[in-house]
Fold this sequence. Notes:
about 300 residues, alpha+beta, five-stranded antiparallel beta sheet
Amino acid sequence: MSEFTSSPGQDAMMNGNANVPSGFSFENVHRNAMLESMARNNDPSADASVSNPGYLPQATKTGTTIVGMTFKGGVVLGADTRATSGSEVADKNCEKIHYIAPNIYCCGAGTAADTEKTTELISSQLELLRMNTGGSQSRVVTACTMLKRMLFRYQGHVSAALVLGGCDVNGPHVYQIYPHGSTGKLPYTTMGSGSLAAMSVFETGWSEDMSEEEAVALVKRAIMAGVWNDLGSGSNCDTCVIRTDGSMTMDRGALTPNDVKPLRDMIKHSELLTMPRGVTAILKTEFVKAKKGGVTIADVTVTPMET
């Protein structure tokens, strides 16, 4: 469903039928029954002789450090590359700077799937908008409005905290977008679990009319502050520079303080563990052609995704 289409409930309200529910429904019968049972002190592992007021599962928290700032000639975005699953590191080189438009990029914190698909959806809608408006350049405020409308519609259930940055005819812009849909336009901002450490670097080092080299160095310092002071942030530092002249530079692995390749190269493995080609004898080789009547590409049905 697009953000510009009305829900069936809204149409019913406009037609005078107030009995039809409107908006989105997040009903989950089995989940709700389980939560009610847990809240009523039906924990099977609890001691029956000890009074237990009940318990509820704790929310899973994600860790990230993402930043964005403006300088004299554009915008610099930065992000760490650690993706966590609870207390475990799920990915050491996760890409958190997402493409929105040729002149707009977006850093995402929160649930990795939500940030990935949210930015992908808005990027697709902006591409269609550019086609309908004669190929004109996308405005950063347009991307911000589309993102905040989508997130507000889901009332925070889409866990995507974003730092949007880009340059258009009105100059460089940086927006912070919260999962509930609230936004703010700032000269520099940070989000994620390492945002406090990164913000301390910005508040002491940021100034107006900084050069590109100074801005990139400050963003790297801010990301490293989150990496070293937040357990949810780590691994490498990615940067993205968007300039007012229309050019863009994406630097994956701008800083790699946790590179383990030199340490692994120091380990000397025994040559006895390396099996040369031909050690295992081939006794028989047989090639069987596929039978006719198998599945072909013509048998595949493509169903477009509802957006």
